[in-house]
Amino acid sequence: MSVNNTANWIYKKGEDDNIVLYSKISIYRNVDGIRFFHNMDKEDFKNTENILKSNIEKLNLNLSYKKLIELPSIDIRMLIENLTIPSNKNIVNASLFTNEDEDISLLINSNEHLEIQTISRGLELESCFNKAYEIESILDQQIDFAYDKKFGFLTSSPNIIGTAMMAEVCIAVPCLTWKTSDNIDYIISECNKKGLEVNVKNGLLNIRNNIMIGVTEKFILDTIIEKVKEISEKEKKIRNRIKKLDRVKAEDRIYRSNAILLSARSLKYRELINYSLWLRLGIYYEIIDNISLDTIYYMAFVGKNAHLKHLYEKSSYYRNVDEIRANVVRDILKQ
Question: What molecular function terms (GO) are annotated for this protein (predicted)?
Fold first, then answer.
């Protein structure tokens, strides 16, 4: 972790990162001959830990190791907020390897025996896959992972059997959701036909593969990247159209968002994200020149609840986390 426990990867520029917030790959594996997670006993957890830990330590990736159960609960929540570990994980028997930037993490004994995750700012899905697959390939030479010739890699969760790989991209689409909500419905429908799951909330669009069996990793990557580029181009086209035909309304939203973030005394997280998306548009239009994308990424992560509570855990001045968030954002933007 770096500044105020945010992950370093958010400061590393990626392709098209004004619109594509991040790309993430998760590869799930289980050790052959050991029961799946929900049927494991103490001996199984111990054996899995020993096998995976000893081989991960040989990777020479300069990874730090921690038992999640030994961490304070607020540290766990910050790992979740940094997207280092998923929010739905069991931590009682889990351990975690991460590198300094937290763009590589290996989670042991949490729903699956092993989850290899790589994450990057911008549209860097292939790069994330290459890093994750390289790690998996080295481990696969030393460990027998549960595999069936017909079904592929076997997992405790039936919906990820097959490639046992989840690819996810998060995209900022404030103009598409503002001006063409019917276009969003069409995008969702077209993605569903390709076996992709799409969620849209607060101007952010998350897209990931919903099918892992009967397809290859390359097919998953190619399909998502194609759709992400298509969505990104649609967002850019409507941004440019708005700039020509409805510039005043767009600039009004941009400058209002900036003013609110600079003066708000109470701020919900969804409000922070919504206003930040308009600041991104201001940077895209080159009318906001005193705020960088790095700053917007930083606000989005340090503005989450656990990070704020960690910053102000000994303060009694603020009554709730929304007041803390508003104060932190004001301070960041005034620097």
Answer: ATP binding; creatine kinase activity
